[in-house]
């Protein structure tokens, strides 16, 4: 009887240079747009590469400077387990990963909620601007208006430096900011920008203001970046339709959600007896 060949060992590299991590992420630059921008941007990030036979197959990146600890996972699902067990050791993270990576992540982290999402993208050739309202660029002078719109709990996130660094646009009704959107993050080096934080006050919804601010941010971002991406829940049909009218297309599905690291005994029990917490639904 011939023995089955041994599979190459998967090893976690905690010291991969930024250029190698960037080259790996560029394999799917639209799917990895957030990670690319965080790698190049001012936020403090850490990353790990899973290697098989010396070749990188999977990457995980955490943004340290944000208290809610975003964690992006990209690449071959075969490397996810090692990365999450041996590399990422945060007690709580907000995961964004391809659907195939979910079982390996759930073996180590318990999700508090899972949202099924689409990554959508647009470039200059496909973009269709729609601005049915007067839209203005928001800067440091409007920071109190921005915080009033998003809520005072957002004060630590919406700093004057962030609003100036990113691209934020809004619609006013009188002296009140009633709708806004901006870039979460962007990278001139990688040529990608991520649009988000689209919000309209309840009393002003249904009037196309969200479309107007999203269009304005996208148009501004495409001046200096060749691709712009955004995220939307798969079950949010109206929003998906709006973004399609702006020229966005669905690049790929993924999932995201807050997750807490399982205790050691829980991980062992889960391995021996299987999931019994409903987390794989």
Would you mind describing this structure in some detail?
- By secondary structure, this protein is an alpha+beta fold.
- Helices cover 28% and strands 34% of the residues.
- It contains 9 helices and 13 strands.
- Strands 1, 2, 3, 4, 5, 6, 7, 8, 9, 10, 11, 12 and 13 form a 13-stranded mixed sheet that branches.
- It starts with 9 loop residues before the first strand and ends in an 8-residue tail after the last helix.
Largest sheet: 13 strands, mixed
The number of helices is 9
Q: What percent strand?
A: 25-35%
Low-confidence stretches: none
How many strands? 13
Overall pLDDT score: 91
Helix content, binned percent: 25-40%
Through-space gap between termini: 41 Å
Radius of gyration: 20 Å
Structural class, judged by helices and strands? Answer: alpha+beta
* Shape annotation: globular
Question: Helix and strand string, N-terminal first?
Answer: EHHEEEHEHEEEHHEEEHEHEH
């Amino acid at each position: 009887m011939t023995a089955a060949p041994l599979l190459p060992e998967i090893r976690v590299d905690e010291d991969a240079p930024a250029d190698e991590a960037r080259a790996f992420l560029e394999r799917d630059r639209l799917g990895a747009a957030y990670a690319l921008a965080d790698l190049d941007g001012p936020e403090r990030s850490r990353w790990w590469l899973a290697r098989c036979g010396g070749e990188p197959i999977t990457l995980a990146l955490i943004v340290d400077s944000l208290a809610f600890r975003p964690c992006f996972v990209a690449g071959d699902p075969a490397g996810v387990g090692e990365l999450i067990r041996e590399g990422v050791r945060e007690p709580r993270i907000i995961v964004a990963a391809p659907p195939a990576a979910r079982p390996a992540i759930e073996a180590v982290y318990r999700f508090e909620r899972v949202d099924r999402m689409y990554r959508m993208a647009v470039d200059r050739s496909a973009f269709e601007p729609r601005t049915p309202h007067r839209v203005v660029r928001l800067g440091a002078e409007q920071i109190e208006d921005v915080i009033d719109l998003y809520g005072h709990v957002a004060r630590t996130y919406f700093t004057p430096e962030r609003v100036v660094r990113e691209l934020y646009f809004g619609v006013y009704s009188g002296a009140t900011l009633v709708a806004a959107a901006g870039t979460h993050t962007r990278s001139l080096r990688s040529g990608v920008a991520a649009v988000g934080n689209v919000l309209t006050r309840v009393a002003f919804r249904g009037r196309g203001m969200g479309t107007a601010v999203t269009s304005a941010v996208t148009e501004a971002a495409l001046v200096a970046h060749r691709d712009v991406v955004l995220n939307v829940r798969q079950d949010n049909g109206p929003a998906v339709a709006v973004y399609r009218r702006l020229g966005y297309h669905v690049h790929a599905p993924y999932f995201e959600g807050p997750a807490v690291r399982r205790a050691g005994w829980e991980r062992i029990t889960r391995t021996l007896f299987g999931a019994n917490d409903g987390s794989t639904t």
